[in-house]
Write a structure and sequence with these properties.
Largest sheet: 7 strands, mixed
CATH architecture of the largest domain: 3-Layer(aba) Sandwich
Strand content: 15-25%
Number of strands: 17
Radius of gyration: 21 Å
CATH class of the largest domain: Alpha Beta
Oligomer: single chain
Shape: globular
Bound molecules: pyridoxal-5'-phosphate
CATH superfamily of the largest domain: Type I PLP-dependent aspartate aminotransferase-like (Major domain)
CATH topology of the largest domain: Aspartate Aminotransferase, domain 2
Length: about 400
C-alpha cells in the first residue's frame, strides 16, 4: 500500500459541518492573506465581514497585546472597565442607552429576542411573544436563531419548530400589516441588508415603513446589523441610510471586534428596564481582551472621516462591478448590496466562479443561491479595488456557468 493511504486526513476529528478549500492561511497583513507555502491572496471577504480593519491592524494588535499582559478574565461577577468605556462610546454615538456584550452575533440575537419578550411581559402583555421575520433572513445557528431565520435547510432534523416566530415573504405588505396587528406580535426583526440571504438591501422607505408599523401597533423594531453594521455600508449602521429611523434594539458583532470574537446587543432604556440582575448573562461576554480590541475598533470606525472614505471607495467598487455586469451580461444579472457588503448577482451557482477567483488570488464569498459576495476590509484602497475587479474580470471570462 502506498504511504498516501496511511496519511490521516488532518481534518478527521473536526465536526464536518464546514467545507473549506485546501488552502491553509498562516498570516494576514492588511488586505492580504498568506498561505503556508507563501502564496498571497487579496481578501475580499474578510472572514465574512469580520476583519473590518484588515489583518494585524497595528492599533488592534497593540491593544490586544497590552491587555493580554495584564488581565484576561474575571467574568461579569466583577466590573470590567473596558465594557463601561465601550458602552459609553456606543451610547454616545448611537440611539442606544444600554449595551449587553456577547461572544458572537447569535448571542446578540438571543439577547434581542429575550429583551423584546421581557419588555412586553413587564408591561403586562406576556402573550406578546411573536417575532416577525422575513424570507432570506439569517440570524445565526442557535435554536432561537434558526427559528427566527426560518430557513428550512437550517431547521431540518433539529426538532419541532419553536413557537413565537412568524415568517413573511419579503415584500408582502398585506401579510406584514396583518402580522403586525396581531395581538400576540412582539417585534419586527430584520437585517437592513440581508447578508446570507443574497446581499439584499431593504429599501430605505421600507425601513421607515417598518418603524411606522411598529409605532402604530406597539411593536419593537429590532435590526440585526451583525453583518451590515459597523461602517460596512459607509454609515456606522446600515439603517442610518433611512432618515429618521431608529430601532429599539440592535444586534452587532463581526466587524465590532475586527476579528476578535464578540458581539453586542444595543437597546433603549425602555427595553432595558425589565432586564434586571439574573434575567440574562454570559461568562465570557465583554471580557477584558474583547473590550480592549473593541474600544480600539470603535475609536477608528466611528470617526466620520473614516466612514466618508468607506463611502468613497465603495462607490469605486460599485462602478467596477457595474462595468463587469455590463461586460459579462451573459453571466451576470446585476450588482447587489450596499457599500462594502456587495456582490454580483449571477445567472448560475457562483461556487465555481468563487473557486476560479481563489485560483487567481482573490478571496470572495457566496450568498443565497446565486450571489458572489464581496465584503472586503473597510480599509481597502482604489488600487485594491482595481486588482479585485481585474481578477473578477478574468475569472468571469473563464467561468463556464454550470
Ligand atoms: N446575524 C447575521 C445577520 C449574520 O450574518 C450572522 C452570521 O453570519 C449572525 C447573525 C450570527 O453571528 P455569529 O456567527 O457570530 O453567531
Amino acid at each position: 500500500m502506498s504511504d498516501d493511504l496511511h496519511t490521516p486526513d488532518p481534518r478527521q476529528h473536526i465536526l464536518p459541518v464546514y467545507r473549506p478549500p485546501e488552502e491553509v492561511f498562516v498570516e494576514g497583513q492588511g488586505v492580504y492573506l498568506y498561505t503556508d507555502d507563501g502564496r498571497r491572496y487579496l481578501d475580499f471577504i474578510a472572514g465574512i465581514a469580520v476583519t473590518a480593519l484588515g489583518h494585524a491592524h497595528p492599533a488592534l494588535v497593540d491593544a490586544l497585546r497590552d491587555q493580554a499582559g495584564k488581565l484576561w478574565h474575571t467574568s461579569n461577577m466583577f466590573r470590567v472597565e473596558g465594557q463601561e468605556q465601550l458602552a459609553d462610546k456606543i451610547c454616545r454615538d448611537t440611539f442606544a442607552d444600554r449595551v449587553f456584550f456577547t461572544n458572537s452575533g447569535t448571542e446578540a440575537v438571543e439577547c434581542a429576542i429575550k429583551t423584546a419578550r421581557k419588555y412586553h411581559w413587564a408591561k403586562g402583555n406576556p402573550e406578546r411573544t411573536g417575532i416577525i421575520t422575513f424570507t432570506g433572513a439569517f440570524h445565526g445557528r442557535s435554536m432561537a436563531a434558526i427559528n427566527a431565520g426560518g430557513n428550512p435547510k437550517y431547521l431540518e432534523g433539529f426538532g419541532p419548530p419553536l413557537p413565537g416566530f412568524v415568517h413573511l415573504e419579503w415584500g408582502d405588505h398585506d401579510a406584514l400589516k396583518a402580522a403586525a396587528a396581531d395581538p400576540t406580535a412582539a417585534a419586527i426583526f430584520v437585517e437592513p441588508v440581508q447578508g446570507e440571504g443574497g446581499v439584499r438591501a431593504m429599501p430605505e422607505h421600507c425601513l421607515k415603513g417598518l418603524r411606522e408599523l411598529c409605532d402604530a401597533h406597539g411593536l419593537l423594531l429590532i435590526f440585526d446589523e451583525v453583518q451590515c453594521g459597523i461602517g460596512r455600508t459607509g454609515k456606522l449602521w446600515a439603517y442610518q441610510w433611512a432618515d429618521g429611523v431608529e430601532p429599539d434594539i440592535l444586534c452587532a458583532a463581526k466587524g465590532i471586534g475586527g476579528g476578535f470574537p464578540f458581539g453586542a446587543c444595543l437597546m433603549t432604556e425602555a427595553c432595558a428596564g425589565p432586564m434586571q440582575p439574573g434575567s440574562h448573562g454570559s461568562t465570557y461576554g465583554g471580557n477584558p481582551l474583547a473590550m480592549a480590541v473593541g474600544n480600539a475598533v470603535w475609536d477608528i470606525i466611528s470617526d466620520e472621516a473614516f466612514l466618508a472614505e468607506v463611502r468613497r471607495v465603495a462607490g469605486t467598487l460599485a462602478q467596477g462591478l457595474k462595468s463587469l455586469a455590463d461586460t459579462h451580461s451573459d453571466k451576470v444579472e446585476g450588482v447587489t448590496g450596499k457599500g462594502l457588503l456587495t456582490g454580483l448577482k449571477l445567472k448560475a451557482d457562483p461556487k465555481n466562479l468563487q473557486g476560479l477567483c481563489r485560483e487567481e488570488g482573490l478571496l470572495t464569498g457566496v450568498a443565497g443561491n446565486n450571489v458572489l459576495r464581496l465584503a472586503p476590509p473597510l480599509i481597502i484602497t482604489e488600487a485594491d479595488v482595481r486588482e479585485a475587479v481585474g481578477t473578477l474580470d478574468n475569472a468571469l471570462a473563464m467561468w463556464q456557468p454550470g
